[in-house]
Amino acid sequence: MTSAIPPEPKRAALTVAGRRLSFLDFGGSGGPLLALHGHFGEGRTFARLAGELGDSWRIIALDQRGHGFSDSSPEYSRTGYVEDAAAVLDHLGIHGAVVLGHSLGGVNAYQLAARFPGLVHALIVEDIGVEVHGDLSFSLSWPHRAPTRAELAEELGPSAGYLAEAVREYPDGWGLAFDPKDMDVSQQHLNGDHWIDWLASECPALIVRGSRSAVLGAEHAKEMAFRRPRTRLVELPAGHTVHETVPVEFAAAVREFLGSL
């Protein structure tokens, strides 16, 4: 039985086009699994999954451009995100990883498989579709800095709960580990019809949908699974952040899929 206690990861980085890309390596003697978070997130969101999977897989969790401890970027294009992920795998000498992505990271994952098929052995896509129409402009009202952590949380209001891991102390006060303006631009680039990329790869794939998700509809998820060979769909009792809401059930679904490869 695996332990849910997350291993202590090693933080490392590489430089891509003059920008620092930071990532966590949770170790493990098994095959490599590259994990890509969603908007507002960072690699540490997959610590619980690393604990649940134990030593059976080597989880590498990237802080994607403009998130966490990675540098911001002058652009947030689809190509930019995908090439960042490819650069991390190349930096580590990995050619054939399972790539897991939540939301933004899910699109990045299946576009990585479409554009660099030799790098991706299998896909796990968490609660994101191939016709994306999101809007993150609400984040533009979030404060840039606050004198204390408590005051920042108060100004963030209801959003403070899911942003707790993104709070940082800076020389000029407390703020978030990303710029909301970057997130808004990133979402605009993410929006669109990505069926061509979804259907371009042939590796095994798992779609994990939250049954209460307002992001990935049930019928859309079923169509994704139906139209793409070697693709299975699992629904779990959660909203959009399945890996955080039901971490044990999410890990079990991931473990079962990984065991089938």
Mean pLDDT: 96
**How many individual domains?**
2
> Main β-sheet, in a few words?
8 strands, mixed
Residue fraction in strands: 15-25%
Strand arrangement within the widest β-sheet reads: 1-2-4-3-5-6-11-12
Give me the CATH fold name of the largest domain. Answer: Rossmann fold
- End-to-end CA span: 20 Å
Share in helix: 25-40%
Name of the CATH class of the largest domain:
Alpha Beta
Structural class: alpha/beta
The radius of gyration is 17 Å
Low-pLDDT ranges: none
Overall 3D shape: globular
Topology, number of strands: 12
Characterization of the model:
By secondary structure, the chain is an alpha/beta fold. It folds into 2 domains: 10-134 and 191-260, Rossmann fold; 137-178, no CATH class. 33% of the residues lie in helices and 24% in strands. The protein contains 9 helices and 12 strands. It has helices at residues 47-53, 78-91, 104-115, 149-156, 180-190, 195-200, 218-227, 242-245, 247-260; strands at residues 10-16, 19-25, 31-36, 57-62, 97-102, 120-126, 131-132, 167-170, 173-176, 192-193, 205-210, 231-236. The strands form 3 sheets. Strands 1-2-4-3-5-6-11-12 form an 8-stranded mixed beta sheet, sandwiched between helices. Strand 3 (31-36), helix 1 and strand 4 form a beta-alpha-beta unit. The protein starts with 9 loop residues before the first strand and ends with a helix. The model has no long low-confidence stretch (mean pLDDT 96).
Topology:
Layout: E1 10-16, E2 19-25, E3 31-36, H1 47-53, E4 57-62, H2 78-91, E5 97-102, H3 104-115, E6 120-126, E7 131-132, H4 149-156, E8 167-170, E9 173-176, H5 180-190, E10 192-193, H6 195-200, E11 205-210, H7 218-227, E12 231-236, H8 242-245, H9 247-260
Parallel strand pairs: 3-4, 3-5, 5-6, 6-11, 11-12
Antiparallel strand pairs: 1-2, 2-4, 7-10, 8-9
Helix pairs in contact: 1-9, 2-3
